[in-house]
Amino acid sequence: MSSSQLSKLTILVLFVLSCTCFTSTEAYDALDPTGNITIKWDIISWTPDGYVAVVTMYNFQQYRHIQSPGWSLGWTWAKKEVIWTMLGGQTTEQGDCSKFKGNIPHCCKKTPTVVDLLPGTPYNQQIANCCKGGVLSSWAQDPPNAVSSFQVSVGQAGTSNKTVRVPKNFTLKAPGPGYTCGPAKIVKPSRFFTTDKRRVTQALMTWNVTCTYSQFLAQKTPTCCVSLSSFYNNTIVPCPTCACGCQSNTSLSGGCPHIASVVPNPGKTPIAPLVQCTRHMCPIRVHWHVKINYKQYWRVKITITNFNYNMNYSQWNLVVQHPNFDNLTQIFSFNFKPLTPYGVINDTAMLWGVKFYNDLLMQAGPAGNVQSELLFQKDQATFTFEKGWAFPRRIYFNGDNCVMPPPDSYPWLPNASSRHLTSPLVLLMTFLSAMALLHEFV
Ligand SMILES: *[C@@H]1O[C@H](CO)[C@@H](O)[C@H](O)[C@H]1NC(C)=O
Ligand SMILES: *[C@@H]1O[C@H](CO)[C@@H](O)[C@H](O)[C@H]1NC(C)=O
Ligand SMILES: *[C@@H]1O[C@H](CO)[C@@H](O)[C@H](O)[C@H]1NC(C)=O
Ligand SMILES: *[C@@H]1O[C@H](CO)[C@@H](O)[C@H](O)[C@H]1NC(C)=O
Ligand SMILES: *[C@@H]1O[C@H](CO)[C@@H](O)[C@H](O)[C@H]1NC(C)=O
Ligand SMILES: *[C@@H]1O[C@H](CO)[C@@H](O)[C@H](O)[C@H]1NC(C)=O
Ligand SMILES: *[C@@H]1O[C@H](CO)[C@@H](O)[C@H](O)[C@H]1NC(C)=O
Ligand SMILES: *[C@@H]1O[C@H](CO)[C@@H](O)[C@H](O)[C@H]1NC(C)=O
Ligand SMILES: *[C@@H]1O[C@H](CO)[C@@H](O)[C@H](O)[C@H]1NC(C)=O
Ligand SMILES: *[C@@H]1O[C@H](CO)[C@@H](O)[C@H](O)[C@H]1NC(C)=O
Known about the structure:
- Helices cover 10% and strands 33% of the residues.
- By secondary structure, it is mainly beta.
- The longest helix is centred in the first third of the chain and has 19 residues.
């Protein structure tokens, strides 16, 4: 092994170690360490009995979006506040407003839950960035659509920055569990530019809430797995058996039953995956095929297959970690963005579909797959087909970690078998996947 290889390995090991040190802060994603959804609450005017506020959610996560049926945001009022009216959103329940005569509030609950309005809402009920049915794009994919807003007119509240109380206990659902929100913090008031940028106004008072995601909180079973193949070995390494749970023995009549484990919030969400019967039982499989070897380049084909009969994945994305992403020369029919959470290490890429071409991964069936080819330039010092180097280290689909086959099953170069198990790289990869597992379950 050359010294440059050694130093790269050292960096990699340090990198992995640094990731595992942080696992105690439950919602930490090594590939998007600052990923969060920030909720900004701007008071724009005081009213006789309270205030009017614009609440804006920014999805600062690089690759995790919120799909239909969308987000819901709840909180607990600090005093006896009520919501008189809303624009661009609504509460799911009105609650008990029997104390009011004449003007009836929109919501009297101590713990209101707000959802976005649907597209096509009349203009007089809209505000900017509202009415997308709760769908929030990821920051890397579509920043203008990674923002969502609604306006509330709050009564029985404080009417100055000295008497107003910030709500507590923010809860964000997407729509299932997974997000944890911190306390609201009063921050410097937001500034707003007029459209011609010639005047700046500012909020009377602003507070921020930061919510972070944890796959562990969201669901305990994976939703995605990886299979591998190569031109130099005709073995196709399948997804691990039962990677996303196993077929239940009951009610098997040709098809597969609903898998409770894949449903994040049974009964409450309309997403009820009905997954095609496979050995892995994953809704999504990512196949990585090492296709062609050229003198200075090599080519990989990626195929994402949907096994979920109940789901079209709109705006899907893939995050892939492979050391050669620092020299990706060409990518066909997917969008590409390097993710460099640690600056110097450029081994992670985000891939997603081209709008109106393959940004929709259709439900299970003949059309339920998307494909791309990647052309990498070899770095002669590190490039090798040996010991599984050409295969990805880690893959996420829509932000969820995909289950990899065990490293000792990777397709081998012919005749590499005797040295295979003791090679440092294989040991390192075993270590990496063990760490990834640890990371998942700490
Ligand atoms: C939330 O994300 C933004 C953008 O990446 C970042 O600037 C901010 O520090 C993050 N907040 C927290 C509390 O991590
Ligand atoms: C409240 O507003 C006054 C000015 O009206 C300002 O001096 C003070 O810092 C504000 N306090 C808070 C907590 O924002
Ligand atoms: C926060 O909300 C959760 C669930 O809605 C509830 O169990 C908990 O008691 C609340 N905590 C406070 C301090 O209101
Ligand atoms: C509050 O959130 C807004 C929007 O994300 C951001 O611009 C601002 O810097 C945040 N303030 C603090 C103190 O984090
Ligand atoms: C599944 O069903 C088969 C035959 O119906 C039975 O032999 C087997 O023991 C069952 N397995 C489990 C785990 O229940
Ligand atoms: C997926 O999209 C196709 C075409 O738009 C539609 O026919 C089908 O009903 C959709 N499936 C689901 C589960 O929404
Ligand atoms: C990472 O690699 C990509 C693809 O080769 C390149 O476009 C990008 O500029 C690199 N980024 C950094 C920070 O080196
Ligand atoms: C890409 O590969 C070439 C040839 O090995 C090398 O000179 C160049 O530094 C590499 N680029 C990056 C960003 O690593
Ligand atoms: C192909 O790889 C498999 C491991 O996945 C190995 O068992 C087999 O011997 C390899 N075939 C050849 C021709 O080397
Ligand atoms: C290498 O593979 C070839 C064909 O598979 C076989 O004939 C040969 O004996 C192998 N050599 C070694 C050293 O394993």
